[in-house]
Amino acid sequence: MAHCNTVLSQILKWAPRHEFESLAKRHHSGRSFRVASRWAQFVGLFMAQVTGRDSLRDLVDNLDAQAHRLYHLGGVGLSRSSLARINQDKPYTLYEALFGKGLRRCQGVAPGHKFRFKNPLYSLDASTIKLCLSAFPWADFRTTKGAVKLHVGLNHRGCLPEFAAITDGKTSDLAIGRALRFPKEA
Q1: How far is residue 141's CA from residue 145's CA, in Å, rounded to a whole number?
Q2: Hey, how many other C-beta atoms are within 10 angstroms of the C-beta on 57?
Q3: Is there a contact between 79 and 60 (Cβ–Cβ < 8 Å)?
Q4: Would the pTM count as exceeding 0.70?
Q5: What are the CA-CA distances from residue 144 to residues 67, 70, 168 (Å)?
Q6: For residues 107 and 163, is the Cβ–Cβ distance under 8 A?
Q7: Nearest in space to 124 (alpha carbons), one of 164, 74, 68
Q8: Beta strands in the chain (DSSP E)
């Protein structure tokens, strides 16, 4: 079978594997993995996000079906228990640093806005992500519901997110907006 570049491999080029591996070494905690790697986890989770997978079982079945393409991406087939174990003790700082690298790369090529405005313009938006209160008791939102909020600040200069913060579901946008330090005259 001839090798062909998949759309997924083209999308993953924004995060070169050598850069990801150096970040993974810097942010690694705990013991090393026997079969899987942080890169295999990242490829699997990225694939799940792009294809809209609903569960670990659904993701693992999809990875098994795409095993011949995963080889070229540097990924491996993962069992549900291995993926769950890796996800359980994954350091969020790795993905936070990866987001920062990707954001800096995008800021260099982002187009400017076409309207006249002298000062930098930022927008703040929050999305409430509903969670099951019995599975996430720390995410107390309402009497019977759990939630967290994702606050994203958008820089209109390139229509790119400038910052993101995750808080409990009760935190207001104003509280986050007042805590942020915007550039002068923004």
Answers
A1: 6
A2: 10
A3: yes
A4: no
A5: 41, 41, 15
A6: no
A7: 164
A8: 122-131, 146-155, 160-168
